[in-house]
Design goal:
The protein has 226 residues and is an alpha+beta fold. 32% of the residues lie in helices and 27% in strands. The chain has one domain. Strands 3-2-4-5-6-1-7 form a seven-stranded antiparallel sheet. It starts with a strand and ends with a helix.
Length: 226
Amino acid sequence: MANRAYLRVWTRDVSEETMIAEFARFLASVPLSESHAGFDQLTVQAVDATETPIVEWDFHEQNYGPAEVAALAAQQLYADVAYIVDAKWDLWAFDMETLKWQHGPQPLVILCQGKDYDDGAAASEGQFSADLGFEHFFTGHAGLLAPGAASDPFAGSDHPIEKTFRSWMTSGENLKQYHQKTRENIQKLFAWVEAMEHALPVQRSELWSEGEENFEARLDAILGQR
């Protein structure tokens, strides 16, 4: 299974009284897909992820923005709830089977959790977080970009798709394009983080992934590579 990447955000002096307003401001910073300009769904979850959701709203037929989503969330304002918002944002994605690029909507899952939700997970995981999608949207495959910063998951692999991918990447022009598209994804992510930090009283933010020891350093290395 492919590794995933995440954004975590902690804000100063967050409370039950300020959570909804900050949630709306966090949502307003999200770079939504041009073809999916609104949010797709809001789920309100109590206690922890094992519990049945309190309520779910599907927005696919409406164009709900940050204010509308936050207003619905405010109807279920408790310290032990989490608000889960499904959305989409536009990223470059490389298809290893067709060896083609596509720029378009990718799933984005946003979480706002009260201080008592999941035994106080917000303290260690952030009051706000986002599942950004697959890690390779930002790091590329096979350690090809800034290779000294990562292990090669395809090392020794004889899988036909992976062998074709490696052969395709021996072209300098193909590798240059691969680097350029991946850099554009990173730049979009960094621009979002900057916008979010201007919108909220951020104490700390963190980019991390399941496959990188230091995800943010890896992104910096790819951006700095020429």
